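Technical note accompanying the year-one report. For the benefit of new consortium partners, we illustrate the data format agreed upon in the data management plan: each record pairs a sequence with a structure-token string. No post-processing was applied to the example shown here.
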Amino acid sequence: MVAARGIGQFVRVLVPVRLTGGYSIRFGAWLSVSQDDARHAWEIWDAPAYKDLQISGYLANALPPWGKGVLGASATGRVRADDELPYLVASTNELLARILEREWPHEEVLAALPKL
């Protein structure tokens, strides 16, 4: 989690993407959340209640290969395992909802990633 004065509060989330051929990828992203939600997440982050965390906000990142098409998309994250970041599980944004729900050609998605 991070808070930036004058900008907002952000919770780190994982964006799961199913790929063809039985592959998958998870993008790390930031979810812009309300001050109250950020405070709640911070209070339970290392507590047993973390496993029940569900948090909503707006995606603060572009995602390759979809770029800025998902920037600012409303999204909901939910914890799947105690030792992992919350995963995005739903969105009212049409594109982000499709990203979360369907399978994507793994060659195209991997080709869009920045080269190291």
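Partners are asked to follow this layout when depositing records. The first strand starts at residue 2 and ends at 4.
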